[in-house]
Structure formats: C-alpha cells, structure tokens
Backbone:
C-alpha cells in the first residue's frame, strides 16, 4: 500500500510539472503571438511592454523564462495583473475560493441525496412507466445548458414572480460570505445550488440505476435472498452498497473539477464571486496572468483530488492495488 | 466534466448473435426497431434541416437580414406598422426595448434582439454554426483520438505509455479553463493566426471547432485505446503479420474496422457534449465571434433583455436542449444496437 501511495504521488508531481509546461507553452510560446503584448491587456503603452519583458524575462532563454514564471506563481506569488491595476493574482484566487466551495459543497449535498433517490426509485420501478419517465427527466437534466437554466431561474425569481410569495425571499444576485450573514448566504445560494446540481442529479441517477440493475443479477444478491433477508435489507446493504463504487469514484472527480473552475458558468450567471467568476472577469479584461494562474491552480487541484480518489479507492478495495 | 460519455461502457447486456448476418445490418435493424431512438433521430434531422433552411427563411419568409442591426426599422403587427425598437417598456422603463414575439412567422416571430435583429432568423443561422461546430469538432476529435489510440495501442510499450500520459495531462485540465486559456490567447491576436501556410482569421468558426475537438480527445482516446488493446493480439492480426502485412495495413485494415463501432457509439454523445461546450464558450464570448452567431451568443445577447424580452433567452436554450436531448437518446439507442462490449464477450 505504501509503495502504491508513493508511486501515485510521484506520478502526481510529474503530471503537475507537465501541466505547468503545457500552460507555459500556451501562454508564452503560441506561434505568432507576442506574449508581452498578450499579457499587457488592451492597448498597452511601450513602457508597460518593456516592463513586462524585463519582469518576466521574456528575452531570456526558454528554461529561465519558465523558471521565472513558476517562481512568480508558486514561490513569491507576486504575479500581477496588468489589466487590473497590478492586483496580485494568486492572492485574488485564494480570496475567491470560499465562494466557490460554498457553491460546490451545497450542490454536492443536493446531487448526492437526490441522485441516490432517483437511481433507487428508477431501479425499483423497473418495468413500470415510471422508470423510463424518470430516466427521460434525468436526461433532460443532463441535456440542458447549465447557464441557460440559471438564466431561467433568474428570470423567474428576480423578474415576474419576484413580487409573489414564492420568490420574494430570493435576495439580489451575488454572494454574501457566511461569516457576514449565514441567512443571506443560504438564501442567495439556494437557486445556484439547484441549478448546478441538476446535471449531476440526472447523470448520477442514471449511472446508479444502471449499476443497481447490473448488480441485481449477481450471485451474492441471490445468496442474500436465499438467506431469507428482507427485500429492503438486500437492496440497501447488498445491492446499493456495491453499486455505489462507480458513484463514489466519479463523485471525487466531478467534485474536484467543479471546485477547480467547472462551476464557472453557474458563478457567472448568479454573480457569485468565486474562482470561476474571477476567470470570467479576467477573460473580459483579457487579463492573461489571472487566467494562467486559475488554470494552473485548478489543474493542480484536480490532479491532487484524482490522486486522493485513487488512493482512497485502493485503500477500500485491495483488488485494484497494483502489485 | 460529467457527460454521458463516461457512462458508455456501463449497462450493457449480452445478446445472442444471429448467425449469417452482417453485424452492421443487425445493428441497423436493432436501431430501426428502437422507436424512441428513431423518433429522436427524426427530431435531430428536423432541427438540422430547419437550420440549413435559415437563408431561405430569412430571405423569403421573414424578409430580413439578421446580420445587420435594425434600430430604426419597422415591422407589421396585426396589420399595423410599428417600430422594431420600442421606447420604454421593460422592467426599468428606460431606453429602448426591442419588439417582443409577434408569433407571426413573417414579422419578427420571436421578436427582436438588443440591436433590433430578427431573433427567429438569428436562431436558425445560430443553429447552423452550433451544429457545424458541434458535429465538426466531434468528428475531428474522434478522428484524432482514434489515430492516437491506434498508434498507442498498436505499438504499445513506450509509445503507448507516453501518449497515454499525455492524454492524462490534457484530461487533468478543467475543461472550461483550458478552453478559455487557448481561446483568449488566440483571440488577443485579432489579425488572425498564422499556422504554416494557413492563415486562420480569429473570427473563423474553425477556432472554436479545433479548441473543442482538442479538449475532448482524451474522452474518446480512453475507450478506443482499450478496444485496440483487446484486438491487437487476436489471431487474425497474427495471421496478417505472418502474411507479411505492413504496419500501416495492420492498423488500418485489420484493427481499425474492429474499433470503429466503439467510435460510432461515442459519436452522438460526443456531438451532444461538443454542442453544449460550444454554447457555453459562446455564452462566455470566447466561442463563436461576431459577425457569426450561434445559440450560445444569442443567449449571451439576451442577458440584458432577460426580464423584458425573455424569449431571446428561452428560444435558443430550448433549441440546445432539444438538440442535445435527441442526440443523447439517439446515443443510448446506438449503444444498445451496436453494443461493442457484448459483442466482445461473445467473441472472446
């Protein structure tokens, strides 16, 4: 187990290195694009360009250029944004993280609970009209563009129906930190949570249903029935438990991807100032240093979460440990 | 990102093979009998035809050019001539609001957008870009991923390890952040991108197509490589080697036909995913660039009109929803019909 962990972590470090190289190439070595010009944002003056070239060592050899960039990203963390008055990019990202975490955690709770409910209900109702019906609803959830669902939610809750008792509790768009007002934090996040979780409820519901039905034909389920266990116990202890393996490993990956920028569209639509929103703002200002930093940190986060999922998986299920 | 792609290999069941028929014919027959899948295929084709007919609609039915702002234009509602941009209206009662839906096919059926353009005509033109980019990038991605998977699986060893690790790296990037990075970098260069002898304009539809194709390569690569590995040591490959077949021949005439079904199963789901991604990127204003429009850019344009003219947002979203839904249902049907995993089990 220890060798597995060490090997997995070494591999993680290697992937991180390659990621930084890829990002570096995208931002500094795209053929035909002058990096200083791109980093400077809209309509830069020659002094700014010269300053950027000097600061980032753009006239120096490739490895030194790369080294300077990495130092500014991870060690001194003083990479500044030129289109945003010299704001320190890395600090900005860490300041935006709580908003993203609030959004993703809440949505994750919703989607796990509801997806399990949908999956079990559909598997139990197999053969009736409700199973295909539930699956069609789940497919609609998977097929709807999340930013559009968010716009519709705003349209209803902030527009026409805001005056009625149904939606009068919805605060204006934006994010209130939990420490400032827990009630407002919660109220402001309810609709974003629902919007973000729809896709995952549909997706995970379908995955769970498929696994449940596949597991139902396994020998150990027959054995459990033959032992005289109640149907309920067979379902919950034997069928659902086994079927959750895919669910759990997918969950780790999707959760990581959402924290690392995947919730961007939801954040933009609801004005939640998280990491995704920061990237979006950077995008509209053509603020490349910020985009570069969110991409690198996001990718790092995903790689780390993936490693943790793999290790956790190997810990739970010795069969997957390579010898 | 959660897409139906990840689900492909789940939920397959063994089907008895009927001897003496071409497997493709069998699959087509199974698909033909699947009424829900066929209905969704019809729906998808209907959407494609409607969007292809965009110039016809704009020119002959609505009599508008949806690419030119029409701030001072007029149209006819219930027999009366009214301006396209109306003073007041909307929640704030400020400035000008475009005309709302008239539900009259020849006069601003879905109303106007913020510059007075006909939303219904834009919707069809937008669909052309969305479908073109969606299908184009899915096909491009499938081809690229298949070629890489064939090389990796066939040569194995170091080649396989290197290529697979490279795919892992692309896989590790958050999809939207990677797309944003590449797009902004390219779009800062407004004079176009010089790639060898090719000069691609920054507003070309090729830019989002290639970016989207690139970010999804690992999603197709993984299952296809698995399939290549499962056939590369089969007897028929050995037989071909003993006959002195070249590597190229082995890859393209022996192995490729045996992995094509996997690619075909993935294709509808890929198109569904790429259409959603294109919409998202265009919504973030880094996908389709003006003067082109797509469903995503129309939703983006509708953001300012969400409360006063909701149909500018609702209509393109519905189109995306219907298109992606039909593709996902069709993808389920194609998977059930071809079922590469069940076929493998019969052979193996």
Residues:
């Amino acid at each position: 187990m220890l060798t597995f962990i060490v090997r997995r972590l070494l591999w993680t470090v290697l992937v991180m290195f390659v990621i930084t190289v890829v990002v570096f190439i995208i931002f500094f070595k795209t053929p035909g694009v002058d990096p200083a010009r791109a980093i400077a944002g809209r309509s830069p003056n020659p002094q700014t360009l010269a300053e950027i070239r000097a600061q980032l060592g753009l006239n120096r050899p490739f490895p030194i250029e790369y080294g300077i960039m990495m130092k500014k990203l991870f060690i001194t963390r003083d990479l500044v944004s030129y289109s945003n008055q010299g704001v320190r990019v890395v600090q900005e990202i860490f300041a935006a993280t709580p908003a993203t975490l609030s959004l993703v955690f809440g949505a994750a709770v919703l989607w796990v609970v509801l997806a399990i409910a949908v999956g079990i209900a559909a598997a139990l109702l197999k053969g009736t009209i409700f199973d295909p019906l539930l699956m069609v609803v789940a497919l609609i959830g998977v097929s709807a563009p999340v930013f559009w669902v968010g716009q519709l939610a705003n349209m209803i809750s902030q527009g026409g129906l805001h005056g009625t008792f149904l939606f009068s509790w919805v605060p204006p768009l934006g994010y209130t930190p939990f420490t400032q007002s827990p009630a407002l934090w919660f109220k402001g996040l309810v609709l974003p949570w629902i919007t973000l979780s729809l896709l995952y409820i549909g997706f995970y519901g379908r995955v769970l249903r498929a696994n449940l039905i596949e597991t139902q034909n396994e020998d150990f389920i027959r054995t459990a029935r033959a032992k005289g266990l109640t149907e309920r116990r067979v379902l919950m202890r034997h069928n659902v438990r086994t079927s959750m393996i895919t669910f759990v490993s997918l969950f780790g990956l999707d959760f990581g991807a959402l924290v690392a920028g995947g919730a961007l569209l939801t954040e933009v639509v609801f004005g939640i100032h998280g990491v995704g929103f920061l990237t979006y703002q950077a995008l509209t200002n053509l603020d490349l240093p910020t985009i570069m930093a969110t991409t690198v940190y996001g990718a790092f986060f995903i790689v780390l979460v993936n490693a943790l999922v793999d290790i956790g998986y190997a810990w739970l299920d010795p069969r997957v440990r390579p010898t | 990102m959660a897409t139906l792609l990840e689900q492909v290999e789940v939920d397959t069941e063994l089907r008895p093979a009927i001897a003496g028929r071409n497997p493709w014919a069998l699959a087509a027959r199974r698909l033909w009998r699947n009424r829900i899948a066929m209905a969704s295929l019809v729906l998808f084709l209907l959407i494609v035809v409607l969007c292809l007919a965009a110039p016809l609609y704009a020119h002959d039915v609505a009599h508008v050019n949806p690419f030119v702002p029409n701030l001072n234009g007029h149209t006819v509602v219930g027999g009366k001539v009214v301006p396209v941009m109306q003073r007041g209206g909307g929640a704030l009662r400020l400035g000008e609001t475009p005309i709302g839906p008239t539900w009259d096919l020849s006069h601003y059926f879905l109303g106007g957008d913020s510059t007075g353009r006909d939303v219904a005509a834009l919707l069809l033109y937008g669909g052309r870009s969305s479908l073109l980019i969606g299908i184009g990038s899915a096909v491009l991605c499938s081809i690229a991923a298949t070629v890489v998977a064939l090389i990796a699986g066939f040569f194995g060893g170091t080649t396989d390890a290197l290529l697979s690790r490279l795919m892992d790296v692309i896989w590790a990037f958050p999809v939207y952040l990677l797309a944003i990075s590449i797009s902004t970098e390219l779009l800062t260069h407004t004079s176009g991108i010089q790639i060898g002898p090719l000069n691609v304009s920054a507003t070309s539809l090729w830019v989002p197509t290639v970016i989207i194709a690139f970010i999804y390569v690992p999603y197709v690569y993984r299952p296809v490589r698995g399939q290549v590995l499962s056939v590369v040591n089969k007897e028929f490959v050995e037989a071909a080697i003993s006959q002195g077949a070249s590597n190229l021949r082995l890859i393209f005439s022996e192995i490729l036909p045996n992995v094509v079904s996997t690619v075909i199963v993935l294709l509808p789901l890929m198109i569904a995913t790429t259409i959603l991604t294109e919409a998202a990127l265009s919504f973030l204003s880094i996908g389709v660039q003006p003067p082109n429009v797509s469903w995503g850019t129309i939703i983006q344009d509708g953001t300012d009109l969400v409360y006063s003219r909701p149909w500018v947002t609702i209509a393109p979203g519905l189109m995306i929803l219907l298109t992606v839904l039909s593709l996902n249902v069709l993808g389920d049907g194609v998977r059930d019909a071809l079922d590469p995993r069940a076929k493998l089990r019969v052979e193996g």
About this structure: The radius of gyration of chain A is 24 Å. Chain A has a mean pLDDT of 84. Chain A touches chain B through 65 residues (CB under 8 Å). Residues 89-124 of chain A form the longest helix (36 residues).
